[in-house]
Amino acid sequence: MMRTEAQAMRSTARSSSPWKGGYVGYGLILGFVLVLLYLMASAQFSYSPHDYSGATTIKAAETVPAKPRPKHQEQDFRSRGTEEPSRKEVAEGHTKPSTAGLQAEQGKRGPEWADKNTIEEQSGNERNPESWEKHQPKEQDTVEFTEFGGGTDDFNNVAHTKPVCDTSFGKYDICELAGDARARGGGATATVTLVSPRAPPREWTIKPYSRKYLDGLRGVRVASVPGPEHAPPCTTRLNVPAMVVELGGLTGNYWHDFTDVLVPLFIGARRFNGEVQLLVVNLMPFWVDKYRRIFGQLSRHEIVDFDRDDGVVRCYPHVVVGYGSRKEFTIDPALDDTGGGYTMVDFTKFLRQAYSLPRDRPIKLGESPAGRRRPLMMILERTNSRRFMNLPEVIAAAEAAGFEVTVAGRPRASYDEFAREVNSFDAMVGVHGAGLTNCVFLPTGAVLLQIVPYGRLEDLARTDFGEPARDMGLRYVEYSVSAEESSLMDVFGREHPMIKDPAAVHMSGWGNVAEWYLGKQDVRIDVERFRPVLKQAIEHLQ
């Protein structure tokens, strides 16, 4: 009987165990849910002015009327077809809303805030690093980032932010610092720092020139840091973008002046419609003065000698470090980010505006005034290598074709006056060389006739001037010098590889090409062979 009772008790225990176990499991789950709800509620209603929390960011942004500015900033500075607003609009978009936001914060924080920010507004936001870092709460950082388009709407989304610097292209590097950007020049190494919690901390050394592979260029340190304590305090602030660029390299050669500096600078700065400040490394005042009309058209602000800018930290809403163009002496809107879809036609229009050049179209034969029936041709005369050995015959052939000819050597007038003189012509003729760079001042639709020296230089000539001329809207005509027209025939003879096998000379290295085909060759034009080319040139003006 006792065995029967024991069996009954074990049976009862087994039947009740699942019921008790189920209640215990439900209890644990319910307790876990209650703990989660408690933690969520505590986080929702807690607030610490020294925390980078989502609630804090929203609160700070709500006090600043300039909250939509980051998106607008990105459209202004990066989208094609959109020009930078006027200086007045920039000042209103940045300064006035942010000042109102700061005043609202001052009313909440007490008189110490009001005194400090009033001094900053009056003295260019100069700050004592120790006192500023000691008293500045984190919300104020958020206000500054919002003001300058720093992108703090989602500061945790670091993985999806655009890299500050693009160093992937072999010719030049470009860095875009949008937000609280601080530039400090002088000293051994200039530094440009982006303060943004969105950008991961990183450093680059950038040579802000259009050919970064050249020797002798100065590097600029570019850095992104998460907070202002890691960056130099501002001593002056300007509510327009800035560009850090370098002169030097091949600057001084006329073709390289345009190819390496002026065209890339147009690509980078034109989008800002004059509201950009240039911070120049290796500034050459005499060179800038020569092209002062171009610089004055690109920027209404003082050019800063960045190498000598000691003791100054300049703060901007947007800084671009570096510049360049993908092709030589031209703009490819499919490859070059001009911020407005600009082309070389736009560049030449820009030059006509900068130099007040009157003509935007050449003569149209059959429609010209009765007093002028012959198109004007400028023949560029070189004084060193690649000279015309029979220039009078070339002039006579051009006049027989219907042109009125003027020979231009080294300009005796000022550069501004020479630009105006070039603009008065309908056609330009010259042997391959830097002088053909003056074609930028010809009216759109004029003719550029390039004479290519002997030595398989056609590809070089087309890259340097042929393709750019077409991109400018000029009518391009080419004449290739034969071996019989080259002075090298007299030097080497027909059987020498320099005459017989130019391809082998190219394969031997650039030194021989530069020394002989470019440096020690003159041309004697066969006028009978040249006449059909002159006829083609004048037909372009009909």
Task: Summarize this structure briefly.
By secondary structure, the protein is of the alpha/beta class. It is built from 19 helices and 15 strands.
Question: How would you describe this structure to a colleague?
Answer:
It is a single chain. With 542 residues, the protein is of the alpha/beta class. Helix content is 42%, strand content 15%. It is built from 19 helices and 15 strands. Strands 1, 2, 3, 4, 5, 6, 7, 8, 9 and 10 form a ten-stranded mixed sheet that branches. Strands 12-11-13-14-15 form a five-stranded parallel sheet, with helices on both faces. Strand 11, helix 12 and strand 12 form a beta-alpha-beta unit. The longest helix has 44 residues.
Features:
single chain, 542 residues, alpha/beta, ten-stranded mixed β-sheet, five-stranded parallel β-sheet, disordered N terminus
Task: Map the helices and strands.
Layout (H helix, E strand, L loop, with lengths): L1 H44 L8 H9 L6 H10 L8 H23 L1 H12 L6 H7 L2 H10 L17 E2 L7 E11 L5 E6 L6 E5 L13 E6 L10 E2 L4 E5 L7 H16 L7 E5 L3 H6 L1 H7 L5 E2 L7 E9 L22 H11 L21 E5 L10 H11 L2 E5 L6 H9 L3 E5 L15 E6 L5 H14 L3 E6 L7 H5 L4 H4 L1 H6 L2 H9 L8 H13 L3
Parallel strand pairs: 3-5, 6-10, 7-8, 7-10, 8-9, 11-12, 11-13, 13-14, 14-15
Antiparallel strand pairs: 1-2, 2-3, 2-10, 4-5
Helix pairs in contact: 2-7, 4-5, 4-7, 10-11, 12-19
